[in-house]
Amino acid sequence: MASIGTIIKEIIIPYRKGNIRLNPEFVVLDDAHIQGFLLGKYYQRIYGIDIYNSKNRNITIGTNKAKKFSLDIYQISSQDPLEELLNEFREGQFRTTLTSKQKLSLLKILRKNRPAFSIGEEPLGKIRGHDIELYLNLERPYPPILRRPPYPASLEIRKKIEKHINELLDIDVIRRIGHNEIVEITTPVLITWHDGKSRLCVDFRALNNYTKAHRYPIPRIPHALDKLAKEKYITKMDCMKGFHQNGVKPNSMK
């Protein structure tokens, strides 16, 4: 494992007679996964930590040898590699037909390519090297049809729209604009399904009439199936918010 840097992180050990605060330096390893760490003799010496091998096992810190902290003893046992990886990727779903060996092999690939996946509020990322550039066949000032105000929405709908906007801000898909930036007003539309879930869309029908189209051939389905004919494993991966993973060039963002 290669080191990708160091970080100093304060550790607070809670204790009923006063918390213990340490500031150890950690080395961050690439593709590493740990569930705990050991405080070595170097830091024990720096903070004056002495361990007494008495019946009750306790430690003292600094010069105050009268203030003793009790130690809890834990039995460290090795964890099954498959169970460890399943716990790490517990949000994933795997087919029940996979054997333990196949599942372990798949999980190792997922861990090796961990930066390719976004979980929770992590930045989404984007497709590299294929930023899209948009061309309009008109210039500012734009016609009124491209500067329409938002559609009327109920209080419940506005709350859902705001929630979607905050989610896009958290994963770095959109950004807040400054008060002096000239950005045309867009028209957000909330699409709601029968199960209560919703998706935030933008009505760009008017804008499409002024956008120069990109024309390219679409691959034929039989050709794609022929390429998969001799493959051993066929995997389908659903990109999280795949539409938003298409990068846009800076001059086309507005």
TrEMBL record:
InterPro entries: DNA/RNA_pol_sf (IPR043502), RNA-dir_DNA_polymerase (IPR053134)
Gene3D superfamilies in the record: HIV Type 1 Reverse Transcriptase, subunit A, domain 1
Protein name as it appears in the record: Reverse transcriptase domain-containing protein
Taxonomic source organism: Austropuccinia psidii MF-1
